[in-house]
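Box 3.1 A note on notation
Throughout this textbook, protein chains are presented in two layers. The first layer is the amino acid sequence; the second is a token string describing backbone geometry. Keep the layers aligned when reading.
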Amino acid sequence: MSTRSSDLRTALMKRKPVLVIAGGFALLAAIIPIAVLADDQTATQAAGVAADTVWVIVTGCFVMFMQAGFAMLEVGFSRMKNVGTVVAKVVTNLSVSSIAYWAVGFGFAFGAGGIFAVIGGSGFFPTFSPGSQMNLPAIAASTAPAAAKWFFEFVFCAVSLAIVWGTMIERTKFIVYILFGIPFAAFIYPLISHQLFGGGFLMATLGSQDFAGSTVVHLTGATAGLAGLLLLGPRIGKYEKGRSNAIPGHNMPLAQLGVLILWFGWFGFNPGSTLNATNLHFADIVVVTNLAAAAGAVAALATIYFITKTMDVGMIGNGAIAALVAITAPSGYVEPWAAIVIGAVAGVIVVVGVLVLDKVLDDPVGALPAHGLAGIWGTLSCGLFTVPALAKFNGVGHGGLFYTGSFNQLGAQAIAVAVAFTTVFVLSYALFWVIKRTVGLRVSAREEMEGLDISEHGMWGYPESFMPVPGGVYRPADTPTVNAHPAPEPVGAPGRTEGSAA
């Protein structure tokens, strides 16, 4: 037995190098798959972060492009003498709100700390570096870096500010846009955004749902516009002898181009609010957003035809916009059939709302019914149609009345609407009142009659329609001819001597 053991040890010693090599290969075989798997996980995570970042930035650009939609919509619904100031207003508001929101607005809306149930308290004057993050509790689940989140949330603020002025065009002093736009972007909008987007009391404790901003963006903008309108008053000639006069816009094709641009931008507005590309929920939201808009346009067409026996072009466009506003809050919570119902109801609301409100309030583009009334309806519709599984998926609130038989979610939605409207109206009315008492809200009657393009900016938006332009046919009255190049003589006509009158 001992002889055999000795022989075995001797044989093993002779084969030791071979065994060591074999053991090494076995260890590598065990380790390499683990290392490769770890690399795959890291690569997968990096790819997910990249996908989310690209998604958030691209959809943010879609939303920013909506500024062009607002510009064309308001230009189309304005008279020719006021189109230039509309474009100047859009660019200026986008600029001042960018700086104000970067400085403090984003921190109030999403920053940690402070009295968090009421308003955020960190992240002011933020700086960014590649891939950097910030302490943003309500949107921490998104892997996109802080800079991407800032940009996406800012363009929402800019949209809300653009909505304010639809009620006040054609008679507002240009300085008012700046004086109101800065505090709106710095504090008023962030206050509501924090409550329903940023983890404030309404969202985190009460469970109020507003997936992409029917209340945060649209009702906030419309409410501020209402406050300004009440202090500003109607355009000259709008109300005479107890009746409302129609003041038609000068270009319906441009207005409807604005509608189509806004419709396109909404595919960033609602789906982008996932702040996430990898969970694939954004594709569902694209579908419900489009279905709602289509239903709103059709319902508005049917409603205005039923009332007036005409297929009003502006009303059809307003129907699509109102439906898009309404589906914004429930877009991440509802099924396609519900989106059609929500959009169709919004199409009816905007037509009836325009016809009724026009009798007492001069709202040139229909912003109050399209963004205000439809925004209220959209927020309340979550309390009716939210799918319980999607409420759980999004982590906010509960299912709607039609699924649960409970009024709890509808009540939470109604409270959110009431709180947002009251807060924004009081703050905006106070701010507009101060502006009116200091620099004034309104241009003079003469300036309004001449048009804001010339009185505020010194140049018509359509110069050839109002003034002589080199190379054009219009000349001052003492000019002897309107055409420096006489027309060819007809065949057989007697010739004119040089210097004769045309």
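The longest helix spans residues 16-77. DSSP finds 17 helices and two strands in the chain.
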